[in-house]
């Protein structure tokens, strides 16, 4: 697996960013990696659409991004554990909120947030809002991420979005060498090669899988995909992460275990799991 701790997922509306962010987190959690998924969208809060209503979610990303003093403990306490995985927790805006609920979020605060966040889990996946130019957290995430996945649909809407938004990333503070272009939600009959040409090439393709829509509607995106038609999507997620398919994984014996799997490191990671799996403190 590649060492890209912070992965920002950006792109057009409906290109599958939220779906991909959760499936990337799920794939990493299967490899026993802790993941915090940050849903930056302050215009249509995502957590209410991906977590069952009974899961408490009372500390918003908005609170963190406007807190006078931000600490790692404050951020960890705000993470919402997921029932489906001890390894995955979520941060995002609460139901009914918008940027109007908070004082202006500054670029400095967003930088502070991502700098602190980076050390709180093995991986941070940031689901950016499509209009990232209007959201300081999304734009800073794209700037600071070790890796940026730029999702676009293989249709005129995806191309139009790209033509508008890609030039916004021309400044050298956005490191183009960390960017990958991904065709998302590719439907049968869509010409991904033609679209890829317009998007300046494509590194990965995430094919359409009906099971994903079903999982989305049933708040079950943190469940593994099981249908045969979903295999292409799962394989693409693994390719993006550089994870070898299960069958061809070499067995690691205790003598041959790489340094990253040494017992000492594994122990400290288990300690990090606690705030995700157990109750949360006061904000
Ligand atoms: N690869 C895919 N196959 C099938 N449906 C998908 C796929 N990717 C996304 N979707 C569906 O498309 C819709 C938008 O996906 P979403 O992840 O919310 O996109 P975004 O976050 O980019 O707006 C959802 O209904 C989701 O189920
Ligand atoms: Mg989304």
From TrEMBL:
Keywords, comma-separated and alphabetical: GTP-binding, Nucleotide-binding
One example of a Gene Ontology biological process annotation: SRP-dependent cotranslational protein targeting to membrane
InterPro entries, A to Z: P-loop_NTPase, SRP54_GTPase_dom
SRP54-type proteins GTP-binding domain sequence ranges: 5-43
Region called Disordered, residue ranges: 247-268
GO MF entries: GTP binding
Pfam family, one: SRP54
Biased composition (Low complexity): 254-263
Protein name in the entry: SRP54-type proteins GTP-binding domain-containing protein
Species in which this protein is naturally found: Lacrimispora saccharolytica (strain ATCC 35040 / DSM 2544 / NRCC 2533 / WM1) (Clostridium saccharolyticum)
């Amino acid at each position: 697996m590649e060492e890209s701790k912070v992965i920002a997922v950006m792109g057009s509306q409906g290109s599958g960013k939220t779906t991909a962010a959760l499936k990337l987190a799920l794939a990493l959690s299967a490899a026993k990696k802790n993941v915090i998924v940050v849903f930056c969208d302050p215009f249509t809060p995502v957590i209410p659409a991906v977590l069952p209503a009974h899961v408490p979610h009372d500390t918003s990303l908005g609170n963190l991004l406007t807190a006078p003093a931000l600490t790692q403990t404050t951020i960890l306490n705000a993470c919402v554990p997921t029932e489906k995985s001890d390894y995955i927790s979520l941060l995002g805006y609460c139901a009914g909120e918008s940027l109007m609920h908070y004082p202006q979020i500054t670029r400095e605060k967003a930088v502070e947030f991502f700098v602190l966040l980076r050390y709180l889990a093995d991986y941070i996946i940031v689901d950016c809002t499509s209009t990232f130019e209007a959201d300081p957290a999304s734009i800073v995430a794209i700037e600071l991420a070790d890796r940026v996945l730029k999702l676009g649909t293989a249709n005129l809407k995806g191309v139009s979005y790209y033509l508008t938004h890609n030039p916004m990333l021309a400044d050298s503070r956005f490191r183009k060498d960390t960017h990958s272009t991904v065709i998302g939600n590719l439907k049968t009959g869509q010409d991904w090669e033609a679209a890829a040409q317009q998007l300046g090439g494509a590194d990965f393709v995430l094919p359409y899988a009906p099971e994903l829509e079903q999982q989305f509607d049933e708040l079950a995106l943190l469940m593994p995909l099981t249908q045969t038609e979903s295999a292409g999507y799962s394989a693409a997620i693994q390719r993006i992460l550089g994870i070898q398919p299960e069958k061809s994984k070499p067995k690691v014996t205790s003598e041959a275990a790489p340094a990253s799997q040494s017992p000492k490191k594994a122990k400290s990671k288990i300690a990090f799991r606690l705030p995700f799996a157990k109750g949360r403190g006061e904000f």
